[in-house]
Amino acid sequence: MAAPLEERFRTVRELHPEYRVETMSGRIVVNEAGTWQHNTCLFRVLRGLLAPAVERGWQIWPNITVYLGRQADRYVPDLTVVPRAPRFHKDYAVHGDSTLLLVDIVSSGSSYDDHYVKPRSYSPAGVPLYLLVDPAQRTVRLFSEPEGRAYGRETVAALDGPLFLPAPWELSLNTGEWW
């Protein structure tokens, strides 16, 4: 009999700590580190979030699993912003409703999961804000107002204009600086 998914997930994480290991719809997904373009975009997003997060005493983590519930998937966003004392499921997993913002930079292999699968899992877990940067589409999507199985609001901005992050951020980001 096969080991439960959670057990296989932990084993793969331990065997490959240099990779991003996620579970999605009953499958284990292992992603390599991003390309230089992916990481450059990520750095620029991080630069825009860093000062406001530090001012508020928050932390930004680049490689932490988000716990979405006992029977739910496990995702590792590119960036996770947490308050001073987030709630943990395990030492490698923070509860989704204990985050302040999750950020993903879409890559060619993650487009469907990032655009469709993850928002449908983050909302029921109480993730307040999910920011999705898609270089191929040259758009930024902000999912906010989690309401059960879906987010109540989805804001789409072009990659050259402002994007407002609602509470607790109350911050306008200049997405043009990300490219």
Question: Would you summarize the structure shown here?
Answer:
By secondary structure, this protein is of the alpha+beta class.
Radius of gyration: 16 Å
Which homologous superfamily in CATH is the superfamily? tt1808, chain A
Q: What class do helices, strands and sheet pairing give?
A: alpha+beta
Strand arrangement, largest sheet? Answer: 3-6-9-10-11-12
Q: Proportion of β residues?
A: 35-45%
Residues in helices, as a percent range: 10-25%
User: What's the helix-strand series?
Assistant: HEEHEEEEEEEHEEEEE
End-to-end distance, in Å? 49 Å
Q: Give a short account of the largest sheet.
A: 6 strands, mixed
CATH class category: Alpha Beta
Question: Please, how many helices?
Answer: 3
Beta-strand segment tally = 14
Number of domains: 1
Overall geometry comes to globular
> Low-confidence parts, pLDDT < 50 over ≥5 residues?
none
Topology-level CATH name: tt1808, chain A
Supply the CATH architecture: Alpha-Beta Complex
Mean pLDDT: 87
InterPro entries: Nuclease_put_TT1808 (IPR012296), Restrct_endonuc-II-like (IPR011335), Uma2 (IPR008538)
Domain Putative restriction endonuclease: 15-172
Keywords: Endonuclease, Hydrolase, Nuclease
Organism: Nonomuraea rubra
Description:
- The protein is an alpha+beta fold.
- The protein has one domain (34-178): tt1808, chain A.
- The protein is 25% helix and 36% strand.
- It has helices at residues 5-15, 36-56, 111-122, and strands spanning 20-24, 27-31, 59-61, 65-67, 74-75, 79-82, 88-90, 93-95, 101-105, 129-134, 139-147, 150-158, 162-165, 171-174.
- The radius of gyration is 16 Å and the shape is globular.
- The mean pLDDT is 87.
- Residues 15-172 form the Putative restriction endonuclease domain.
- This is Uma2 family endonuclease.
